[in-house]
Amino acid sequence: MDTRNNLDVKDENKNFRKERIKFTIHNARKSWKIFYRSKYGKAGFYLVLFFVVVTLISPLIIMHNDPTTYIVPEEDFSAAGPLVTAHIPVTINASESPTATASSTTGSNLIYESTPSHIYGISLTGSLHNFLNSSGLMGVNSFTVGRYSSFQTGILSLNTYLLSANNTDIILGKVSWSGTTYGTGNPSVSFTKVSVNNTVLSPISSAYTYHTGESGIPEFNDITYKPAYIFDINGTSSRGYYLNSYYLSGFSAGSHIFTTKLPYDIAPTNYTFYGSLFSTSSSQQVLVTQGTHLLGYSVSGKLVTNDSMPDPISQLYIPSAYQSSSNSYNSIFSISGKFVYGTFISNNTNYIVFQSKFPIVAISSSPGGSGFPGLFTVVSSNNNITILDGPNSVEFSLSTPVAITGITQYSSNFLFYNLKGEYLYLEPGTSHDILWTLDLNAASTRPIIFLDPNTAREAIALVSGDVFHVYSTSPKDLNPIPPTFHTISGQILPLGTTIHGEDVWSQFIGSFSTDLFIGIVVGLGILLISLLVGMVIGYYSGLISSGFETFALAIFLIPGLPLLIVVASIVGPSLYGLIAVLVALSWPFASFTLIGMVRSLKTRTFVDAAKVSGASTFQILRKHMVPNVTPILIYLTAINIGGAVAAVSTLQILGIAPLTVPTWGGMLSGYYSDFFALALAPWWFVPPIVALTLFIFAFIFIARGMDEVVNPRLGGRR
């Protein structure tokens, strides 16, 4: 009989628990319906869901997992500093190139550019001078010729000459200035022409293109001492191609030195002069390429070099030091398919400098000196840059997304370019990375590097469309970079960069998990403390209860932000330290709310009934108090989560809590010290401002929705 009674009691208790669970679920569903029916509650729910989803997928969509330390590569945010911009009346053919040469001890006075109908001179102040109106002009070359006014006094004067051609004439011009010294007053050019037919390539001179930053002065004399020559190639495939030579002095048909037919009926693609500054002409040569053939002619027109390469020769290159003196190691470098060859001028023997898996598009080197140049640069068609410190000896290589088609060199610095207006600058002596980039987003000419006499530093000249540009090689910081999906290093920056070059997207996405973590941990911490304090102080009375209440009231009455700033400054920039500070300073408000509710519930009949039935204090608190304060607990927790993130953001904006983890407040710290930055780079500040606002409002909406659950008078139960 007793056994059956015990079983009946167990069944009754079991059924009671089931009914209580059903009742709890029923109430939860009912409360959810009231909450979800609220516009505020629904909006808050979906906003919180959005933040949770982004947090979960953030490892998949973040660009860099170290957003607080990652800096985009220097080539993405450094560019050439603009010095001069000038408009030209006509559009320049991108296949042409400016030219500059120094004709005074202070440097280049003008930079020259040609169009199919004009030759222009542009000063470094942006002044434009039209020197020649013609038709069918090829590119213009400028070079410096020195002349001693007296062998006894040894006074050397420098003169600038311009050399161009069209289909019927070779055109030589001498630059003069109206002032008392060269480079002062107004420039003018006197031109002389020699009739030719079917010029194939722009004529060249044996004289040196001189800059004050380079050693040696081209000491040519128009009459007797170290004569300067002009060379021209004309002809057709049907009647052959001819190399012509003229003296610069008294340039005319009468200054003709020789005409020799090239041995192959293949259109020449390159020619250059070797030995511009040699003391004698015995080793000087004019070098011509025809298909796979490398030809060398003496200044008297004798064929002294005739080498063949496996593939057509696309470029010839001579280091500048090899133009100064004749040495056994002097080499002519050439591109032939996937090979770079060196040819010793002294004995016409070839050697392989570099072999690539891909066709080679451009070569260059440092000036050279004793032996092989210290740095030799090779660009392959797969956009790979290789730096050699000897034949087949790779010092380093790097890849770039820019399709490079050429190299311009000054000293040991290299400017890589294509005719689409993309430029990369490399200084191998200081870094193995691209120092800066320039993208004009328009067809542009081959650039030149020269010494700017105003700054005594290298400068770059080029023409894009109808605009002439001069840039300094000293990099200009482009940060903050606006949003872009393509940088020179291949970076994707959907939200651009900060002023320090940090990836805004990575910081923004990385902040979701941090701020959500801060909000939840602080909210739960306040929940636990306020629940414990509220239950104990609210249910019990006496000296201890009064003491706790007084202590909580003291914390609550102290101004929150100043207290938070002081304590946070003491704790320092620690994530968990800030969480502890926020929890320690934020629990009194929630506690006072719960104390009032517990004291009200304590007087209810169901509490008295529980006491009469023998329920312990813990059971009363757990079964009667907690369920009745749960909705208000959710309300207070929602408020505290949003408030915690707002508090941390405030401290970071003020610079008091510089955390080493990404947060939205940390992203806004620069805005506090530079209000103008908000207008300058909205992509940097607007996303965290929007995220913070939505995050705080999400939990305010959650709290507002819960308010309709716990307060029937708001109409949520209808």
Task: Please characterize this protein's 3D structure.
With 718 residues, the chain is α+β, with helices and mostly antiparallel strands. Among the domains are: 1-37; 38-72 and 502-714, MetI-like (MetI-like fold). 34% of the residues lie in helices and 29% in strands. The protein contains 13 helices and 32 strands.
State the main characteristics.
718 residues, four-stranded antiparallel beta sheet, single chain, elongated, 13 helices, MetI-like fold, alpha+beta, 34% helix
Summarize the entry for a quick read:
The protein is an alpha+beta fold. Helix 2 crosses helix 4, helix 4 runs antiparallel to helix 5 and helix 6 (560-571) packs across helix 7.
Chain-wise SSE layout:
Elements: H1 2-37, H2 39-61, H3 74-77, E1 78-87, E2 99-100, E3 111-114, E4 118-122, E5 128-133, E6 141-150, E7 155-165, E8 169-177, E9 187-195, E10 204-205, E11 229-236, E12 240-247, E13 256-261, E14 268-274, E15 285-290, E16 293-297, E17 303-308, E18 313-317, E19 331-336, E20 339-344, E21 349-355, E22 360-365, E23 376-380, E24 384-390, E25 393-399, E26 406-410, E27 413-417, E28 422-426, E29 434-439, E30 448-452, E31 457-464, E32 467-477, H4 504-539, H5 543-557, H6 560-571, H7 575-602, H8 605-612, H9 617-653, H10 664-667, H11 669-673, H12 676-680, H13 682-710
Antiparallel strand pairs: 1-32, 2-3, 3-4, 4-5, 6-7, 7-8, 8-9, 10-11, 11-12, 12-13, 14-15, 15-16, 16-17, 18-19, 19-20, 20-21, 22-23, 23-24, 24-25, 26-27, 27-28, 28-29, 30-31, 31-32
Helix pairs in contact: 1-13, 2-4, 2-13, 4-5, 4-7, 4-9, 5-7, 6-7, 7-9, 9-13
